[in-house]
């Protein structure tokens, strides 16, 4: 079973390069792409990717805010619970200054 990936980056060249790298792997598939985080929650609901590879700095809605929105969607999406579990397991002693709250 292949892992589905959604790419979110405002640079088309970056998305193109990542798509080529990911699609070259037999067990990975790019399911969708976006150029900012504005519609990512709806895209994730629709496509149900295993992984969202998202840039932090983007116009309109940046990756930090888009991640907050994905986490706020809670149980309606499959992967945020896994993200919270992994984050809890690998949380540094001092939280990073990324702007994400402890729910991430």
Which tags fit this structure?
single chain, 104 residues, alpha/beta, Rossmann fold, 3-stranded parallel sheet
Task: Please describe what this structure looks like.
The protein is α/β, with parallel strands linked by helices. It has one domain: Rossmann fold (3-Layer(aba) Sandwich), CATH 3.40.50.2300. The protein contains 4 helices and 3 strands; from the N terminus they run βαβαβαα. Strands 2-1-3 form a 3-stranded parallel β-sheet, sandwiched between helices. The chain is flat and about 30 Å long. The protein starts with a strand and ends in a 15-residue tail after the last helix.
Helix and strand run: EHEHEHH
* Radius of gyration, taken over Cα atoms and rounded to an integer in Å: 14 Å
Class from secondary-structure proportions = alpha/beta
In CATH's first tier, which class applies?
Alpha Beta
Helical fraction equals 25-40%
Give the biggest beta sheet: 3 strands, parallel
Low-confidence stretches: none
- CATH-defined fold name: Rossmann fold
Q: Would you report the number of β strands?
A: 3
Number of domains: 1
Distance between the termini: 27 Å
CATH superfamily: Response regulator
> What's the architecture in CATH terms?
3-Layer(aba) Sandwich
Shape: flat
Write the layout of secondary structure elements.
Elements: E1 3-8, H1 12-23, E2 28-34, H2 40-47, E3 51-54, H3 63-72, H4 80-89
Structure, briefly:
The chain has 104 residues and is α/β, with parallel strands linked by helices. It has helices spanning 12-23, 40-47, 63-72, 80-89, and strands spanning 3-8, 28-34, 51-54.
């Amino acid at each position: 079973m292949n892992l589905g990936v959604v790419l979110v980056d405002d640079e088309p060249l970056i998305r193109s390069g990542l798509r080529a790298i990911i699609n070259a792997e037999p067990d990975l598939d790019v399911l969708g792409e976006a150029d900012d985080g504005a519609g990512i929650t709806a895209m994730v609901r629709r496509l149900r990717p295993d992984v969202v590879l998202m840039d932090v700095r983007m116009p309109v809605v940046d990756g930090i805010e888009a991640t907050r929105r994905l986490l706020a969607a809670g149980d309606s999406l499959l992967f945020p619970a896994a993200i919270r579990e992994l984050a809890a397991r690998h949380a540094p002693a001092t939280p990073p200054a990324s702007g994400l709250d402890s729910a991430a």
